[in-house]
Amino acid sequence: MPKKDVYLSPIPLLFTGCNGISLVADHYGSATGTPVLLLHGGGQTRHSWLGTAQRLAQAGYRVISVDARGHGDSAWADDGDYSADTMVGDLRCIIEQLDAAPILVGASMGGLTSMVAVGEGHTPSALALVLVDIAPRTEVSGVARIITFMSANPQGFATLEEVRDAIAAYNPNRPPPKDTSGLKKNLRLGDDGRYRWHWDPRFLDYAPTKNQGETLTSIERRLAAAAKVQIPTLLVRGANSDVVSHEGAQELKALIPHAQIVDISGAGHMIAGDRNDVFAETILSFIRDNL
């Protein structure tokens, strides 16, 4: 049983990002433990970390799961700016509002943001970096499949069952939920009665697919930032990932020689959803061994 001061249900938080934008977050766990910042991927929300957040909270950490700008309940950028520099700026602002240096856990977009922020020295402080199925070089086909999924159905969905079926088509290895009501956390219901994803469509303006699988940041910038990461680093890769290949993981290792790499069997790009039990324990083991 968790201690009385450990909260496994989310407590809402509000951060201020670049240019005063409001960023919504959930806090789990101890009020005084080492902070762990959970940063989701593009098109996701803070709710994608629920199982991971609760497991880390049980271990005594102060877990903070943040909705990126334009995602979930965070504000949309008035000027439509979802560039890498602005995302990095938001992360810097969040860390400045904490009272202790955090462990950064970033999936896909959140991982790229964290890696660039750490490597370029934009973070005031960070204890460790966990990259969740993201590396400087990604696979063109896997990135294109994500963008195709996010770009589909711009008119939304008539029912939650349609949403469930779209997700199942993208990730056929994960059993679809029997109860579709949980999908509402990742959706917004429009005045026309249709469900749409809970993120600003203008975000896709910053997610082009190029010949090296680039999104948000150039490959040159990623490589340069990775080479300057000095803090303990872990890459957790889905063994079935079509976004980060074995070669991509090894290139990361060459850039960050002290980095540890763990492949999670039975998981694809969405590791936390595919194998949360193994994923959470992998992170905990890394933290205990390195901090």
From TrEMBL:
Pfam families: Abhydrolase_1. InterPro entries: AB_hydrolase_1, AB_hydrolase_fold, Carboxylesterase_BioH, Epox_hydrolase-like. GO terms for molecular function: catalytic activity. SUPFAM superfamilies: alpha/beta-Hydrolases (SSF53474). Residues 35-271 form the AB hydrolase-1 domain. Coiled coil: none annotated. PANTHER family: HYDROLASE ALPHA/BETA FOLD FAMILY, PEROXISOMAL MEMBRANE PROTEIN LPX1. This is Pimeloyl-ACP methyl ester carboxylesterase.
